[in-house]
Amino acid sequence: MEVKRRTAKTLVGKLSSVSEQTRTESLCELRLMSKNDPETRTLIAEAGAIPYLSEILYSPSAIAQENATATLLNISISSREPLMSTRGLLDALSHALRNPASPSTAQSAAATLFSLLTVDTYRPIIGSKRDILYALIDIIRNPNSHPRSIKDALKALFGISLYPLNRATVIELGAVPALFSLVVKDGRLGVVEDATAVIAQLAGCEEAGDAFRKVSGVGVLVDLLDLSTGSSARTKENAVSGLLNMVQCGKKDVGEYVKEMAYIVCNGISDVADNGSSKGKNKANELLKLIDGASGMSRSQEMQPDTENLENGRWSWSNSSV
C-alpha cells in the first residue's frame, strides 16, 4: 500500500509540471491506476489530485479533458466526499458538460454527477446548480448528442429528480418536452426506459400537471401501457409510476383526468400488477385501486397499497470505471 501511495503522490506532483507532455503522461497513468486498482482511488484523492483534475476540465485539449473526467469518475466510485468538498469541482463538471472537447468527456462528467447523486445529501447541492441542470437537459434535447451522452445525462437527471424540491426546477428549465420527445421519437429501448424513469420522478410534483399537458404527456404514458405497443416491462412500470405520482401529487383536476385516461389501459396496468417486479406490482395495484374508486372496477379486493417511495425505485445502472 505504501508503494501505491508514493506512486500516486509522484504522479499527482507531475500534474503541476510546466511540460504538457509530462502532465498528459501523468494523467493517463492516473486514469489507468484508478480504473484497474480500486485501492488507489482514495490514495490519488489524498495526494491532492482533485483540484488539478478540476482545473484540467477547462483545458481545450481533448486528451486532457478525457483523462481528467475519467479519473474523476473512477475516484467518485470509491471516494465521493473529497470531490464534493473540493471548491469549484461542480463548476468544472458543468463546464465539461457544456464545452466537451469530445463526447467521452461529457459522458464521464454526467456519469460522475450520477455517482455523486447516489448520496442523498448531495442531491440538493447539485440540484441547486442550474447551469448543471440546463447542460444535462441540453444534451438530451440535442439531436446531435452521442447516444451514450444522452443515457448518462438521463441517469444524472434521474438522480437529481430523486430530491423532490429539485423537480420543479428541472421542469422549469425545459426537461419535460425533451424527455417526451425522446420517448416518442428516439425508439432506442434503453433510452426510452431511462427517459420514462426521469418522467416518473418529475410527475411527483404539482408543476408536472401543466408541463405534461402541453406535450400530451399523460396520453404518451397511457399509450406506453397499451398491450399492443410492445413496451418493455421497465417502461411500463415507469409509466405506471408516472401516472400514479400525478394522481397522488397533482391538483385534483389533474388527478381526475389521469384516472380517466388510465382507465383506458386497465389491461396494461393489470399486466404490470400481475407480471411486474415487486415494486411495479405495488404501484400498479395502487393505481388500479385509485381508478377503481373513480370508475367501479372490480379489482379493489385484491389490491395492496404501495408503501415505497419512488425514490427507492429500480435503476439498472452500475458504477463502472473508465
UniProtKB/TrEMBL annotation:
Query: Which species does this protein come from?
Result: Lactuca virosa
Q: From what superkingdom does this record's organism come?
A: Eukaryota
Q: Which UniProt keywords are listed?
A: Repeat, Ubl conjugation pathway
Q: What Pfam families does the entry give?
A: ARM_PUB (PF25598)
* Protein known as: U-box domain-containing protein
Upper lineage:
Eukaryota, Viridiplantae, Streptophyta, Embryophyta, Tracheophyta
> Does the record's keyword annotation contain ATP-binding?
no
Annotated segments matching region Disordered? 295-322
What ranges does the record list as Polar residues composition bias? 297-307
**Domain U-box per the UniProt entry, residue ranges:** 14-293
PANTHER family given in the database record: ARM REPEAT SUPERFAMILY PROTEIN, U BOX DOMAIN-CONTAINING
